[in-house]
């Protein structure tokens, strides 16, 4: 069946461009997606009159515009909240880029627990307590969060994180997930547990490399 082509007006074109930018941002797709032949073919099949924006348009216009709009929305929501707690952490990506993230948590007007990411920033400086505290404090100022609304901040047990919290002079709550992970890691390093794990791996290898063993197990 032949599809009918329809011409897009300017507002419709912008709406689709923004939807594409949202898709790329929320699904962490590469900007090069718009240059892939298969994707171009797919979009052309939907509507031949739609012209995909280039990488430059996405990186310099659509994505920054969407970021600004989203930031304004989050800012308005935050200003209406009475008290916040925060979580923050540093990590290095698979491409060896260091980042720091800060998320705020609060009860909204509908008495619903709400979270919002205030920033995910490349931290090219050393991950010292001073530098971490500076980034967090800058985000507090950017979103105009007064000290009286800050209840606590949750971090892991890293010495740099603990120092950052002291510099910020904010009540600290230790991350339960990090504490649990540390505890389990220490347990698995015990000689008694290592011996059990080794035996389990040997049993697993038998069934992983022998379909006959799997067949016989199925008969039990």
From TrEMBL:
<dbReference type="InterPro" id="IPR052035">
    <property type="entry name" value="ZnF_BED_domain_contain"/>
</dbReference>
<dbReference type="InterPro" id="IPR012337">
    <property type="entry name" value="RNaseH-like_sf"/>
</dbReference>
<protein>
    <submittedName>
        <fullName>Zinc finger BED domain-containing protein 1</fullName>
    </submittedName>
</protein>
């Amino acid at each position: 069946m032949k599809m009918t082509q329809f011409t897009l007006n300017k507002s419709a074109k912008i709406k689709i461009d923004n939807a594409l930018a949202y898709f790329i941002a929320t699904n962490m797709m590469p900007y090069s997606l718009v240059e892939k032949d298969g994707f171009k073919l797919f979009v052309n099949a939907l509507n031949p009159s739609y012209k995909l924006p280039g990488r430059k348009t996405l990186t310099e216009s659509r994505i920054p515009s969407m970021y600004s709009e989203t930031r304004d929305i989050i800012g308005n929501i935050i200003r209406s909240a009475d008290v916040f707690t925060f979580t923050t952490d540093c990590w290095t990506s698979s491409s060896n880029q260091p980042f720091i993230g800060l998320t705020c948590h609060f009860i909204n007007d509908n008495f619903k627990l709400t979270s919002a990411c205030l920033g995910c920033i490349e931290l090219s400086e050393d991950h010292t307590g001073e530098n971490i505290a500076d980034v967090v404090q800058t985000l507090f100022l950017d979103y105009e969060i007064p000290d009286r609304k800050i209840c606590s901040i949750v971090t892991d047990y890293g010495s740099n994180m603990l120092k950052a919290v002291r510099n910020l002079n904010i009540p600290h709550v230790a991350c339960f997930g990090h504490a649990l992970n540390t505890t389990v890691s220490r347990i698995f390093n015990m000689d008694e547990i290592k011996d059990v794990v080794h035996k389990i791996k040997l049993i697993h290898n038998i069934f992983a490399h022998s379909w006959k063993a799997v067949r016989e197990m199925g008969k039990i």
